[in-house]
Amino acid sequence: HTPMYYFLSNLSFLDICYTSTTMPVLLANVFQEKKTISYEGCLSQLFFFVTFAGTEGVLLAAMAYDRYVAICRPLQYPVLMSMKVSVCLMTGSWLCGLANSVTHTALTATLTLCGPNQISHFLCDVPLLLKLSCSDTCVNKSVLYVASATIGLSPCLFTAVSYALIISAILRISSAEGRIKAFSTCASHLTVVVVFFGTAIFNYDRPDVGYSLDVDILISMLFCVVTPMLNPIIYSLRNKEIKVALKKLAGKHGFSSEISI
C-alpha cells in the first residue's frame, strides 16, 4: 500500500490490456490461410492499443517522479507522494492516453481507403493505415508528430531528467553500501524504462527507409509482446519485497525444501 506498488499494479494491468489487443488476432491468423481483420475490428484494435501504450509511457514518467522524490526528497515523500497525488498522476496518465487515442482513431476513421487494403504487419497502427489511404493525410500526420512529441518524447525526456537528478544524488552519498541501496530502489524501473522507450522510439521515430519489413515486425513484436512480458520478471527479480512474498507463498502451500518428521 505504497505509491510505487500502486503504480506497479496499474502497470501490470496495462501490460495485460495492450498485449491482449494484438495477440488474440495474431494467434487466430496463425491458423488461418486468409489472414484478415474487419475494418471495425482494425479501428477498435487501433483505439485500445494507442490508449494503453500512450498511458504506459506517461505512467513510467510518473513512476520516475516517484523514484526522484523517494531518493532526492525522502523527508518530503509522504507529502509529495500522498495517495491523493498518486491517484491524480494515475488518472492523468489514463486521460492522456485516452485523449491521444480518441484523436487518432477519429481522424483515421475519416480516411478513405482505396485498396488493396493489405497491411504487411500483425497489427493495425496509425502509420500503417495512413499508407492505405488515398485521401489527404496532412492533418493526420501533423497530429501524429505532435502526439509523438507530447505523449512519446516528453515523458521520455522527463524520465531522463529525473534519473539524471537521481544518479547525481546517489553519487553524493558517502558510503558505497548507501549508494548500492539507493540505486537498487530504482534499478528495476530504469530497466523497464530503457526497454519500453528504446523499442518505442525505434518503432515510431526511426527513418522510413533503411529497414526491412522483417526488422520492422521484429521491433514491433518486442514492443507489443516481449516488453510487457519482461516487466513482471524484471520487477520480481529485482524486488526484495516480492521475493519475500513469494517465499512466504511457497511455504504456505508446502513448497518448502525442509521435511517435517
From TrEMBL:
> Which residues are the signal sequence here?
none
UniProt key word Nucleus: no
| Membrane-crossing segments per the record | 12-31, 43-65, 143-170, 182-202, 217-237
> Which residues belong to any copy of the G-protein coupled receptors family 1 profile domain?
1-235
**What UniProt keywords apply to this chain's record, in alphabetical order?**
Cell membrane, G-protein coupled receptor, Membrane, Olfaction, Receptor, Sensory transduction, Transducer, Transmembrane, Transmembrane helix
* Keyword Cell membrane (UniProt): yes
Report the InterPro entries cross-referenced here.
GPCR_Rhodpsn, GPCR_Rhodpsn_7TM, Olfact_rcpt, Olfactory_GPCR
Compartments where found:
Cell membrane
Give the main localization category. Answer: membrane
How would you describe this protein's topology in the membrane? Multi-pass membrane protein
Q: Which Pfam families match?
A: 7tm_4
Family of this protein:
Belongs to the G-protein coupled receptor 1 family.
Q: What is this protein called?
A: Olfactory receptor
